[in-house]
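Entries read sequence, tokenised fold; example below:

***
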Amino acid sequence: MPKLHINQNQFSDLLNLTHKVFYPLKKFINKSQFLSIINKMEYEKKFFPFPIFFGINREKYHEIKNFNTLDLIYKDKKIATIDRIIFFSINKKKFGKKIYGKKYHTHPFFKKFDKENYKFSSFRILKVFKTKYEDERFVKPSKVLKKIKKLRFAAFHTRNVPHLAHQWIHKYLFNKYDGLLIQPMIGQYKSGEYKDSTILKLNQLVKGEYNNKNVLVLPFFSYPRYGGPREAALHALVRRNYGCKYFWIGRDHAGIKNFYDIYESQKFCKKIEKKINIKIIAEREPYFCKNKSKILNSCSCNNNCKIKISGTLIRKLIKSGKKIPNYLMSKNISKNLSKNSLIKS
């Protein structure tokens, strides 16, 4: 059987599609579906905000273009068999404009998208083979739906280890609703980001501190698309598929640098929450108030009292070997962090 070696992003998309994490999508999209999603945010007349596509570069395309059945290989293991392979092209500039807006050509992910995707492919998935990732990094929605579905669970998305602003949000959510799903995204590979093992370990540590049976920590095995409002809507849809009824959209959710306005994702998702079918929690970001010496998301002080709490700032402190102040992160978490906690270049 001819083989196609796929990367980690394609592998995570495959798992999420075939196990209904991205429902109503259950397979990689074809051309007409691609256009429907970017133009109308619809897939077969159901809401869907962000295309989940299978792209290949020029070299791989010429290697496999004459085959109709392939084994997909990830890290030297066969993970799926596919057939009915159809290749297609799309107008990449139109994709960029619809997803990222008028300044799409300056967006870092668009440059990567344009470079890596010579052709796109749709296909039938004949069989997916179980891998260790399904136990270590991936949890099917079906494994948690029974526990969550009948309760008012809120979900929190992160790509970081928990700092004190995150913990303020955690407590806000599980005190207001029946339970909380903390679902960190793992599967990142960018230099300077936290390792998967660090993210999971320290979010589990925080869960233990809460001593609440209705606080869960589950991995979301995926990757950042830096798609701002549309990707934030995708994240909300994913948590709906895990059985949650509420979802916290954070400051600059799914953004990158200063490409989007800081509350653009909140406003967009709040506007379409009925289409996503999950209630969007859109509060101001928490900060440390110097006057009151605690974490708040509003106060009557002037702006000089506010110290912003940022995962980016904390990672910079770790890289430079500096101590993380206790007003940014609890000592119980920070004592577990070092340069070895971060992905090396």
